Amino acid sequence: MNLFEIESLTYRFNRIVALDGLSMAIPAGTRVGLLGANGSGKSTLLRILDGLYFPESGQVRFLGEPLTEQRFGADAFAHQFRRRVGMVFQNPDVQLFNTTVFDEVAFGPLQLRWTAADVRARVMDTLERFRLAHLKDRVPQRLSGGEKKRVALASVLVMDPEVLLLDEPTDALDPRSQSQLIDLLMGWTDGSKSVITATHHLGILEEIADRCFVLDHGRLVAERTPADLLQDQELLDRTNLIHVHRHRHGAAQVHSHPHTHGL
Amino acid sequence: MTGKARTPRGFVERTIDGLLHAMERAVSAEAGAAGAGWIQRLDPRVKLAGLLSLVAAVALSHRADVIAALLGLGIALAIASRVPLATLLSGVWLAAVGLSGALALPAVFLTPGRTVATLPPLGWTITAQGLTSAGYLILRVAAAATFGFLLVFTTRWSHVLKALRAFRLPLVFVVVLAMTYRYILLLLEAAHDMFVARRSRTVGRLTAGERRRVVTQSAGVLLAKSLHLSGEVFLAMQARGFRGEVYLLDDFAMARADWLALVCFAAAAAAAVWVGR
What we know:
The complex is a heterodimer of chains A (about 260) and B (about 280).
Chain A: E1 2-13, E2 16-27, E3 31-35, H1 42-49, E4 57-62, E5 65-66, H2 69-72, H3 75-84, E6 85-88, H4 92-95, H5 101-111, H6 116-129, H7 145-157, E7 163-167, H8 175-189, E8 194-199, H9 205-208, E9 211-216, E10 219-224, H10 226-231, H11 233-238, E11 243-249, E12 253-259
Parallel strand pairs in A: 3-8, 3-9, 6-7, 7-8
Antiparallel strand pairs in A: 1-2, 1-4, 4-5, 9-10, 11-12
Helix pairs in contact in A: 5-6, 5-7, 7-8
Chain B: H1 11-33, H2 44-60, H3 64-80, H4 85-110, E1 115-119, E2 124-127, H5 128-154, H6 157-166, H7 171-200, H8 208-239, H9 256-275
Antiparallel strand pairs in B: 1-2
Helix pairs in contact in B: 1-7, 2-5, 2-9, 3-5, 4-5, 6-7, 7-8
């Protein structure tokens, strides 16, 4: 069964088209990479999949059920959906709005109306798993970039969603923090969860995805395995995922080759 | 005596310092709420009802000595709740006196009555009735602001929101208040970053005209950013199941001390209104 089915989806910001007649299907239990340059529509698509934006035309279905504004108006549906689907935003600052790290991680479970004892136990367990227990009383806004990302991730994974939507999870992180974050994600998914990651970092692709969808100007231009995609230099070049890099070897020799960040 | 000569600080530097100070204050207010003072120990509903009833008493009293007594009560509560008086002075009274003083200043000269002095260069007369009116306003604002500050400084914001819901304040107001607080730190940070970026591109001191331009441009950009940020923060809250209702780990429970405090607050407010009528 497909996790998400998208049919002829169009979404505009005022008059600017962000997604243009997009159709695709994401099978359940897979790890998917959504690739594309800045402005290709990846983040907008993730927000539509999370029921935060609603398309101007076309349809999105989650496990066969249409995702519409009317359905999210009903508490029971919204509650169920938020329990099952979690999203980590690109900018952790917008996601960290509580006054302590503990409260931040407890926010989601409290909205789902878990018992106080459950919330406390699950929050502490998650904080320890993410090596954040020592920061539990700190103000989230004062943490380093890597710590903020970890708190943002913990605040979603504490709810143990079946589906995780990640928007540029390694963006603006140093190499060590990137690798720690990927390890945490790999440890959590354990092969049993669906993870959809929007990124333009090709270097993490084989670790985070079994299947890749490439977007360009709001349209789907390719669906490949990570290995196949990384071989297709022409496609990567056309969709601005790699560029020609010129540099100097020794005193005089200058040469150029396709180059990507994060590989 | 040795020491560095003080470098005159520019407008941009002062703005950056001001923004940093505001961020510190926003964070320290939550730290104050976690303190071990008398008000901090009360049920948030008692704090909300009690302190707001004292604000109402300040507004309804017509005698300066009663308003002054309420201000004294506010100071006593601040001491009992370990609220630093320096914070109260700099964060509340100076602003309250400055703002209400500016508003009350014309009344000093315009209110008809017995002349007590004349402003030498302009020949404007200061009347006793004008001074009394201005004094009332300043005293009222200082006392009311003290109780408002005590509520915010001794209560976690999430508890204030939940207490408001307990008093059946409509959800939409609580959501607006929740959102305001959620992104105020982000907004301060955005403003701070903007002014730091401005400093990196500023050579020398700005003229008055340039400063005005910086302020108007920054205000415009901040408005656009704040709209964007408020939308993003709300989406992030929605994504984790927020539907407007406030849920907390701590359930409110009235103890005997809370009932007693509630009676004391109500008695003090009622007495102030009665005596000051």
